[in-house]
Amino acid sequence: MTQYAFHFNSDVCTGCKTCQVACKETYKLPVNNLYRKVYNYQGGSWKPTEAGHYVPEGVFGYFVSLACNHCTNPACVANCPTGAMQKDEETGIVWTDHDVCIGCKTCETACPYGAPTFDEEAGFMLKCDMCKGEVEADGKPICVTGCPMRALDFGTREEMIEKYGEGDVEVEPLPADTTDPNLILTPHRNAQKSGSGTGSVVNLEEEL
């Protein structure tokens, strides 16, 4: 089986959200649904000086662009009660069969990355399918082609590792690896390890 994967370089991402918007516009997603989200993770503080000015103390910030990671051991597939969540045997892409999805949200609860979301109007779950149609036509996912900084890339897992190294998916604000995600993440130079970070996600609620 060929396993496709995303690469994301946090060190060059500017947080412009072009990837997020390009995806949402292409698939005409409802207001409260996103396939890809760009997290803004920040920390540190501003320390007052004797002169009454403020100077940064340990201030840092970086962005993480995240969609479905098409995991090798996807929790959504393992926990779906109807078999609506499927992992393609040829490409490794995890996709949703809307004909059998009942919108129970079990996949949303099971996924450590919060990839599946519920479409209130349609009554079923939505999730990134790695632009299956584009991939089958020898193209790349819309988010990848839309990124102006080329912070995103796509190919087989082997190709991504060969180009960028093994990477590290256990950086804040991502959780510990429990599903073997097919995301080759090049961490930001200021990235903090999952579970030991001192910052927080500062996005507005409507951005996520």
TrEMBL record:
Gene3D superfamilies for the chain: 3.30.70.20
Compositionally skewed regions (Polar residues) per UniProt: 192-201
Organism this protein belongs to: Adlercreutzia equolifaciens subsp. celatus DSM 18785
Single GO molecular function: 4 iron, 4 sulfur cluster binding
Pfam families recorded: Fer4_11, Fer4_4
Keywords tagged on the record: 4Fe-4S, Electron transport, Iron, Iron-sulfur, Metal-binding, Repeat, Transport
Statement: the UniProt record of this protein carries the keyword Chaperone: no
Name of protein: Dimethyl sulfoxide reductase subunit B
Annotated segments matching region Disordered: 170-208
Database matches in SUPFAM superfamilies: 4Fe-4S ferredoxins
Transmembrane portions of the chain: none
Sequence ranges assigned to domain 4Fe-4S ferredoxin-type in this UniProt record: 4-34, 60-90, 92-121
Organism placement in taxonomy: Bacteria, Bacillati, Actinomycetota, Coriobacteriia, Eggerthellales
